[in-house]
């Protein structure tokens, strides 16, 4: 009996040491709406289960679950975050794969899913549920060490429906970036932003994209814009 208890204790200590050694060092926050939450492979409300090679699990890629525990990341990353919707493939895993494929000195990476499908940017304003949740999860992600390297932001399609929303997008986005940097105590935190391109209302879509482009003028050091998530050289 004593021998069995000793073996169990050693097993638990080994597991704890292994988990501690695998704490995420480079942390990325995933935020925005459905494209970030992941809708790849979702047809008629069901995910087909197909996972591209660049999105497959890797022991060195973790995700922060809804229960605020680190676990090996696997698709769909937002399954327990963007609840009430069917999640599929998003850009998060491919982003990390791109980091490693381009020679980045990335070790253990932690992804923090926070996206919510169908949300306008005003749903992310300071004080809203989504904003508070993002800040809270970001804070939890660094409790055991590591550093937040960037926020990956993929949102804007919902703000191309009306001219009023499109006109307000630039100001709302710049305010959001400023507030997040302040509340996360990261004044130079990079925000990697993807331009919306899936909406058929071309005039308003281009207006939002132009607003995003203008935002980079005053923040060239930190606000990076990528046209397609899976075809870029990421972190240097």
TrEMBL record:
Give UniProt keywords alphabetically: Hydrolase, Signal
Give residue ranges for domain Sialate O-acetylesterase: 25-196
Which Pfam family, just one, is annotated for this protein? SASA
Endpoints of the signal sequence = 1-20
User: What GO molecular function annotation could you give as one example from this UniProt entry?
Assistant: hydrolase activity
InterPro entries cross-referenced by the UniProt entry: Carb_Esterase_6, SASA, SGNH_hydro_sf
Organism domain of life? Eukaryota
Q: What is this protein called?
A: Sialate O-acetylesterase domain-containing protein
């Amino acid at each position: 009996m004593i021998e069995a208890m000793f073996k169990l204790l050693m097993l638990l200590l080994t597991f704890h040491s292994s988990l501690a050694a695998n704490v995420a060092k480079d942390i990325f926050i995933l935020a925005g709406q459905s494209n970030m939450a992941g809708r790849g492979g979702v047809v008629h409300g069901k995910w087909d289960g197909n996972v591209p090679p660049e999105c497959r699990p890797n022991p060195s890629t973790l995700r922060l679950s809804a229960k605020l525990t680190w676990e090996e990341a696997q698709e769909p990353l937002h399954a327990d975050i963007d609840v009430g919707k069917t999640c599929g493939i998003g850009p998060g895993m491919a982003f990390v794969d791109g980091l490693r494929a381009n020679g980045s000195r990335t070790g253990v990476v932690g992804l923090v899913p926070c996206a919510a499908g169908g949300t306008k940017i005003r749903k992310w304003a300071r004080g809203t549920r989504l904003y508070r949740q993002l800040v809270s999860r970001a804070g939890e992600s660094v409790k055991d060490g590591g550093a937040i390297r960037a926020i990956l932001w993929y949102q804007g399609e919902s703000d191309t429906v009306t001219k009023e929303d499109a006109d307000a997008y630039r100001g709302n986005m710049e305010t959001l970036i400023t507030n997040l940097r302040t509340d996360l105590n990261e004044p130079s935190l990079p925000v990697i932003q993807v331009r919306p391109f899936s909406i058929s209302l071309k005039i308003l879509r281009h207006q939002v994209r132009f607003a995003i482009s203008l935002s980079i003028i005053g923040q060239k050091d930190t606000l990076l814009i990528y046209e397609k998530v899976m075809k870029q050289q990421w972190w240097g």
